């Protein structure tokens, strides 16, 4: 199978299937037990303030699977238009909605149907009229150029096969002076190409990640300026899986909260 998956199209298809299967389970059975922290435990572990979590609907927070607290960059202001790439159950969507207020708008994209439906229910039941979601891929954003003031994401781009295209698309849909503010998994040591050909390992959030320096260069090469790592976090120490902790340690996998600006 690994030899067959050297075809980028087949590899992308299998990665998408593996990721959707994993996060369908996170959506439908958040208490099942996963190799990464989920729900309020995960929110607190990566730095979300408890008072903020308590204001959000449980249906959104119970399936949270992000890797960092990118809102610490404090870039979202009232009246802005914000795009959330890979919104999951909607935790960050709803936080962003409160920050932009009724004069702003928040749009979310995701590829997992179960997460999309869960987020839609949370949005509808809590009266967030400035927020909507749709099914779309990070490397094929269905928006015109210069649509958004801020793009956020949380532990998602490491799951995208064509990261170069994803950052190019984010750059395209941001306005001049727009900001990319997000959290993702990066590495300190390289992973073998054979491991990268295994779709199941992509859903583990380590194999799809890149070396930190290479990752930052992708962002810069997309056209962003003032790229900076706001925080580094030992995310995988919170994993309940000894194997996941060991793999993460082997490759020095960690969270980077990153901010970059479109000139």
TrEMBL record:
CDD domains: AdoMet_MTases. It holds the Pfam family Methyltransf_31. GO terms for biological process: methylation. It comes from the Bacteria. Its EC number is 2.1.1.137. It is an enzyme of class 2 (transferase). Residues 76-223 form the Methyltransferase domain. Keywords: Methyltransferase, S-adenosyl-L-methionine, Transferase. The keyword NAD does not apply. Belongs to the methyltransferase superfamily. Arsenite methyltransferase family. This is Arsenite methyltransferase. It comes from Candidatus Daviesbacteria bacterium GW2011_GWB1_36_5.
């Amino acid at each position: 199978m690994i030899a067959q998956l050297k075809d980028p199209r087949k590899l992308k298809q299998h990665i998408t299937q593996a990721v959707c299967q994993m996060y369908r389970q996170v959506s439908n059975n958040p208490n099942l037990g996963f190799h990464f922290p989920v729900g309020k435990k995960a929110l607190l572990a990566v730095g979300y303030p408890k008072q903020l979590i308590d204001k959000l609907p449980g249906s959104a927070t119970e399936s949270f699977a992000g890797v960092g607290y990118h809102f610490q960059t404090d870039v979202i202001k009232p009246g802005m238009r914000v795009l959330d790439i890979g919104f999951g159950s909607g935790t960050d969507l709803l936080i962003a909605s409160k920050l932009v207020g009724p004069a702003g708008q928040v749009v979310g994209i995701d590829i997992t149907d179960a997460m999309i439906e869960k987020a839609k229910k949370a949005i509808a039941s809590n009266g967030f009229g400035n927020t909507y979601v749709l099914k779309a891929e990070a490397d094929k954003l269905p928006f015109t150029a210069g649509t958004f003031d801020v793009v956020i994401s949380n532990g998602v781009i490491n799951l995208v096969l064509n990261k170069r295209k994803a950052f190019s698309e984010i750059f395209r849909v941001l306005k001049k002076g727009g900001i990319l503010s997000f959290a993702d998994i990066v590495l300190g040591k390289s992973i073998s190409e054979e491991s990268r050909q295994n779709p199941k390992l992509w859903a583990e959030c380590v194999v799809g990640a890149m070396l930190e320096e290479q990752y930052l260069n992708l962002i810069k090469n997309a056209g962003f300026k003032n790229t900076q790592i706001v925080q580094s976090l030992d995310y995988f120490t919170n994993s309940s899986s000894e194997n996941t902790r060991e793999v993460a340690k082997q490759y020095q996998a960690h969270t980077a909260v990153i901010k970059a600006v479109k000139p």
